[in-house]
Amino acid sequence: MLHIVNKSPYEKNSLTSCLAHALKGGALLLIEDAVYGATKGNVAEGAIRRALADLPVYALGPDLEARGMQGNVIEGVKVVDFGGFVDLVAEHRTSQSWL
Question: What's this model's pTM, rounded to 2 decimal places?
């Protein structure tokens, strides 16, 4: 399953809830304000680093760039463009958006 989170970890607990339910073999995609969770020094950094042991974590590059965070991405988080976003949706049989 592809888990898609779009809320900042500073604003809502969507990322925390997602990580509590995401299973090995799935994937996590951070978009919009959720990309702050993919950056070094944020409140969710530890949780993201732990999650990387069980599932791939992706962040949408254009959203990182729009927030000036493209140079601060946690090691192991893969940055994808819009085409990569489409590829992730196509690769996974199901997806869940965490609001």
Answer: 0.96
